[in-house]
Design a protein that fits this description.
The protein has a single domain, classed as Rossmann fold (3-Layer(aba) Sandwich), CATH 3.40.50. The chain is built from seven helices and nine strands. It is of the alpha/beta class. Strand 6 and strand 7 form a beta hairpin. The strands form two sheets. Strands 3-2-1-4-5-9-8 form a seven-stranded mixed beta sheet. A two-stranded antiparallel sheet has the order 6-7.
Length: about 210
């Protein structure tokens, strides 16, 4: 099953539980800034921002099912289907980008790097990037599936869910490498409850785009 097929199939029932660090975000992003949420799902983070006084909001997701759900649930949000690997916005056109549990859905290094290049393209100079995502775990359930699927995908931390999605938990050194063009403003380890009810190591990062 392709990733978009999986997310379309669960778009009506999945509830995302990972908390958005709204207070930290508000320290670096003003209410009138243009904010882009990539992989917005059904728009729950943008809805939280909306109710915190943010109005200049755009959400992108490759799951048409998620976007349709979001439009019905939050009709006041600007939610759009992401058609391909590019971001359909001009260069230097947004003040902040949110990547909320998106990297976990992109299992190859190359695709993650391509996404970060697009983010750097659309961000204004010294624009803000907010990332929430998953780190490697050490419990037996995760260790066994990391080992099993390393043989399939060639990267430790990638695994398949029984229902068909491919996910990734990240080595912290890789995350630091991926975000190297952003000056770290905040970085903190967190423990998340996943969408399937398990505990996982995670982090949130807020960075400012360097003038590269």
């Amino acid at each position: 099953m392709k990733q978009d097929e999986y997310w379309n199939s669960v778009s009506e029932k999945k509830e995302f539980t990972t908390p958005f660090q709204a207070e930290a975000f508000s320290r670096f992003v003003k209410r009138d800034n243009r904010i882009l949420d990539i992989g917005c799902g059904y728009g729950r983070t943008l809805d939280e921002l909306y109710h915190n006084g943010y109005r200049n909001l755009i959400g992108l997701d490759f799951s048409s099912g998620m976007i349709e759900r979001g439009k019905q649930q939050f009709p006041y949000l600007d939610l759009r289907v992401k058609e391909n690997d590019t971001i359909a916005l001009p260069d230097k056109s947004v003040d902040a980008v949110i990547l909320f549990a998106v990297l976990t859905c992109i299992h190859t290094n190359k695709k993650q790097e391509q996404l970060l290049e697009e983010i750097k393209r659309v961000l204004k100079p010294e624009g803000i990037l907010y990332v929430n995502d998953f780190l490697l775990n050490t419990d037996e359930r995760n260790l066994s599936r990391y080992e099993k699927f390393k043989e399939v995908y060639g990267i430790y931390g990638i695994f398949e869910l029984p229902e068909g999605a491919v996910c990734r938990h990240h080595d912290e050194a890789w995350i630091k490498q991926l975000l190297k063009d952003f000056s770290e403003l905040e970085y903190s380890h967190l423990t998340f409850t996943t969408m399937n009810g398990h505990k996982s190591n995670g982090f949130y990062f807020i960075g400012k785009l360097d003038n590269v």
